[in-house]
């Protein structure tokens, strides 16, 4: 009985450690602020390439999210994100996606192959500072969202 209890506790701890923790930082020497600035640049460039005639609208970054520790809720490590959208619909969604993919690749990121999901044409990308998704919805408007890797908090 005692062995079973210990085994149950061990399995629960392993499950919490595997599911609750955020991805560890990749091989980068960037601070969270530098990574966020780089992702901001990538998001603006991708939207600018897809919609050269319309200014991109990028949201102000939200608060940094804790992602350290066993449950991913300690602020020893943090991550942050950026989101943006196009100012007008794409007349040629496929061409807009291809232009965004090309610009993201030019900036040193690895764009995945485009795919359709729920009527939206989209692709995911990863790179030195983090990763995200670029998509053009059924309304023709583009959206980009990206998040830094879980990086050491310089304030802790």
Task: Please describe what this structure looks like.
The protein has 3 helices and 10 strands. With 156 residues, it is of the alpha+beta class. The protein has a single domain, classed as TBP-like (2-Layer Sandwich). A hairpin with a 2-residue loop joins strand 6 and strand 7.
Would you state the CATH class?
Alpha Beta
The end-to-end distance, rounded to whole angstroms, is 42 Å
Compute the gyration radius: what is it?
Answer: 19 Å
The low-confidence parts are: 5-25
Structural class of the secondary elements? alpha+beta
Tell me about the largest β-sheet.
7 strands, antiparallel
Q: Give the overall shape.
A: elongated
Features of the shown structure:
156 residues, alpha+beta, TBP-like, 7-stranded antiparallel beta sheet, 3-stranded antiparallel beta sheet, 3 helices, 33% helix
What's the topology here?
Elements: H1 2-20, H2 32-50, E1 57-58, E2 65-68, E3 74-79, E4 81-85, H3 93-106, E5 110-111, E6 115-117, E7 120-126, E8 130-136, E9 142-148, E10 151-152
Helix pairs in contact: 2-3
Please provide a brief summary of the model.
This protein is 33% helix and 29% strand.
């Amino acid at each position: 009985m005692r062995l079973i209890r210990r085994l149950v506790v061990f399995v629960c701890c392993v499950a919490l450690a595997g599911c609750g923790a955020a991805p560890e930082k990749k091989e980068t020497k960037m601070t969270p602020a530098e990574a966020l600035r780089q992702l901001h640049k990538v998001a603006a460039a991708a939207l600018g390439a897809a919609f050269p005639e319309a200014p991109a609208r990028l949201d102000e970054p939200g608060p940094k999210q804790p992602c350290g520790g066993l449950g991913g809720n300690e602020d020893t490590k943090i991550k942050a994100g950026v989101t943006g959208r196009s100012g007008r619909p794409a007349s040629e969604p496929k061409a807009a996606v291809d232009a965004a993919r090309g610009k993201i690749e030019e900036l040193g990121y690895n764009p995945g192959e485009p795919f359709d999901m729920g009527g939206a044409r989209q692709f995911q990308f990863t790179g030195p500072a983090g990763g995200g998704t670029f998509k053009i919805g059924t309304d023709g408007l583009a959206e980009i969202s990206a998040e830094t890797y879980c990086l050491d908090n310089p304030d802790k």
